[in-house]
Specification:
Layout lengths: L3 E6 L11 H4 L4 H14 L3 E6 L3 H13 L4 E5 L8 H9 L4 E5 L14 H5 L2 E4 L4 H11 L2
Parallel strand pairs: 1-2, 1-3, 3-4, 4-5
Helix pairs in contact: 3-4
């Protein structure tokens, strides 16, 4: 499992490609998964990509990544970014490096998006580059 990167996606990310493409782009989550899998193969890594609209699933998967010895977690917490102390605590409770990922740049958006509880606990954050944000985060995770 040491060569596996968990890619966890929070609420509403299942609607990528349909939901506000002017903000989030036209790539679907499946498109992003394909891009990550292609790059991961080149880096001798494996991707375990998941999405849930439920906070508890994301927390359970963070714990699982730790228990299974994943190399890193890429986490796009969606709207939980700005609200979830529970995700913050889950990220802090594991030693597996977590990289927060966002398609858009939260700091260039509404004021309530400027605070990231997850980012305060994560190893780093990559945001604002659309689907490329995930690939950049994968590149960073590969070097950890």
């Amino acid at each position: 499992m040491a060569d596996t990167i968990y890619v966890l996606n929070g609420p509403n990310l299942n609607l990528l490609g349909l939901r506000e493409p002017e903000i989030y782009g036209s790539d679907t989550l499946d498109d992003i998964a394909g891009q990550l899998e292609d790059r991961a193969r080149e880096l001798d890594l494996e991707i375990d990509m998941r999405q849930s609209n439920h906070e508890g699933h994301l927390i359970d998967w963070l714990h699982e990544a730790q228990a299974r010895g994943a190399k890193a977690v890429l986490l796009n917490p969606g709207g939980y970014t700005h609200t979830s102390i529970a995700l913050h605590d889950a990220v802090k409770s594991i030693t597996t490096p977590v990289i927060e990922v966002h398609l858009s740049n939260p700091h260039a958006r509404e004021d309530f998006r400027h605070t990231s509880f997850v980012g305060r606990a994560a190893r780093g954050t990559i945001a604002g580059f659309g689907a490329l944000s995930y690939t950049l985060a994968l590149e960073a995770a590969a070097r950890l």
